Amino acid sequence: MAERATVPRGRHAPPLEVRQSVQRTRLLEAAAAVFARAGYADASAEAIAREAGMSKATFYEHFDNKEECVLALFDQAASETLEAMAKAASAAGHDSRKRMEAGAKAFLEMLAEHPNETQTLLVEIIGAGDPGADRRDNVLATFAQAIDAENANAARKGSMRRFASPNDSYAIVGAVVELASRQLRRGVPADVRELEPLVERLIFGLAPVE
After folding, report:
1. DSSP string for residues in 66-118
2. Alpha-carbon distance 27 to 50, whole Å?
3. 106-109 long-range contacts, Cβ below 8 Å, gap at least 24?
4. Which of 59, 99, 132, 141 has the fewest Cβ atoms nearer than 10 Å?
5. Residue 15 confidence (pLDDT) above 70
């Protein structure tokens, strides 16, 4: 989800490993654009390479096929989103409500700022079959566990009620992902960040502040 990377050419060219890293970054950026525009099923290695301004041979130097590429893109998008949420929660201090609010806001900000990667993170990964479904399940579980941990900490402090069951945090994550996916597909609401009050109501409705 970074700015498009380029490297100098000729005698000022960086070492091979640096060039390869830049190539991989450009290919992932291109893949995000192609998956968002055409969908996973209709995307191809050739289209991704062309979008990146590279040869198909270069694509295959980095990925065996488009499935491996979409999984790598998903992993990157998920990792950067989780990192942004963790940083936002940490910056919010020790108040669990503020930490949850900050994490939710950071999540929606990442979706808004990186729509192509968001399409893969929330929708196109399903096209990658069982490996994609496993990746998606694991990431959603990570989101849910983070929410549950914040709730448990707040409940210990007496500032929030404990969730009624471990499934409550999964229900929140599932609802948020579906709302964000609908926004991608239908543009409702116009900006995904408009979902922030609803996301907060989902979290605090299941665990009211004392």
Report:
1. HHHHHHHHHHHHHHHHHHHHHHHHHHT-S-HHHHHHHHHHHHHHHHHH-HHHH
2. 9
3. 107/81, 107/176, 108/180, 108/192, 108/193, 108/195, 108/196, 108/199, 109/84, 109/193
4. 141
5. no
Do 46 and 81 form a contact (C-beta atoms < 8 A)? no
Selection from 62, 68, 64 nearest residue 21 by Cα: 62
Q: How far apart are CA 30 and CA 22, in angstroms?
A: 12
pLDDT, residue 8, reads 54
Count Cβ atoms below 10 Å from residue 142 Cβ, excluding itself: 12
Q: 178-188: per-residue pLDDT in tens?
A: 999 999 999 99
Cβ 109 vs Cβ 131: under 8 Å:
no
Q: At what angle do helices 115-122 and 96-113 cross, to 10 degrees?
A: 110
* Phi, then psi, of 53 in degrees rounded to 5: 75, 30
C-alpha to C-alpha distance for 118 and 103, rounded to whole angstroms:
17
Identify the pLDDT of residue 9.
52
Our measurement of the distance from residue 28's CA atom to the centroid of its chain's CA atoms, rounded to an integer in Å, reads 14
CB 161 within 8 A of CB 207: yes
Do residues 184 and 119 touch, judged by C-beta distance below 8 A?
Answer: yes
Residue with tokens 């096209």: 127
Token code pair at residue 204: 């605090």
The amino acid occupying position 5 is A
